[in-house]
């Protein structure tokens, strides 16, 4: 059940390109391979395209032995403009054994659509895996990604200090960069990862009424280091909170951050799209 994707179609409309909207946007972190999207994935992609979303990075998560990571890659291969990241989420760190390591490593090299290793990191909010295990598995996956020269997608929740410490130990001087996804830390954390050369990606939670402190941090991140994401189906931005999130909604986060930076939404969308294509070395827009 878990490694099934919708049947293949040759529908050219499933392509994200070309886009009729004057906006161009990238959803740098989404989970559109999940069951939540099984009923209407084609429509979700079509709506994203209409909203101007020219690329989506679909991040595989879950038990590495269950086939969900393979499913994430399959979905990316099915739609033009959709890419994939594979890795073992800190929630599932306890499931990371030799067999899983081999499987993720092979999958990371299996397709040109796989452009990053992740999401990996530490989650001390849920503590679904013991912290010591999370730290070991995080460090180990950083070394594996580094070996393959793949960028990394980092998930860090209530673990800022340990995340930065492990990144400094394992990623300093790496050939490729990283993205701190769904940023929720303070400015000190942001400054530390900027120093490491990371990009910082904000999700819909930056639009929440009570997120004033996070908006203050977002305002201070240089435009050329910013990315935007939905983390869908989670974190639906205002004014759609409470509903399933989807890539088209990334425009709400763009609007919010554009305002914080005193630029128009179109300019902000274009800048973050160029940031994404430069970071991943992808040909999306002509510059
Ligand atoms: Zn995450
Ligand atoms: Zn995620």
Describe this structure as you would to a colleague.
- Helix 4 packs parallel to helix 5 (160-171) and helix 8 (250-260) packs across helix 9.
- Strand 3, helix 3 and strand 4 form a beta-alpha-beta unit.
- The radius of gyration is 17 Å and the shape is globular.
- It is an alpha/beta fold.
- It is 37% helix and 15% strand.
- Mean pLDDT is 92; it is low at 1-15.
- Strands 1-2-3-4-5-6-7-8 form an eight-stranded parallel sheet.
- One zinc ion (ZN) binds next to loops.
Task: Give the topology, please.
Layout: E1 25-30, H1 41-50, E2 53-59, H2 68-78, E3 82-86, H3 98-108, E4 114-123, H4 131-148, E5 152-157, H5 160-171, E6 178-180, H6 187-195, E7 199-202, H7 212-219, E8 226-228, H8 250-260, H9 265-280
Parallel strand pairs: 1-2, 2-3, 3-4, 4-5, 5-6, 6-7, 7-8
Helix pairs in contact: 4-5, 8-9
Bound molecules: zinc ion (2 copies).
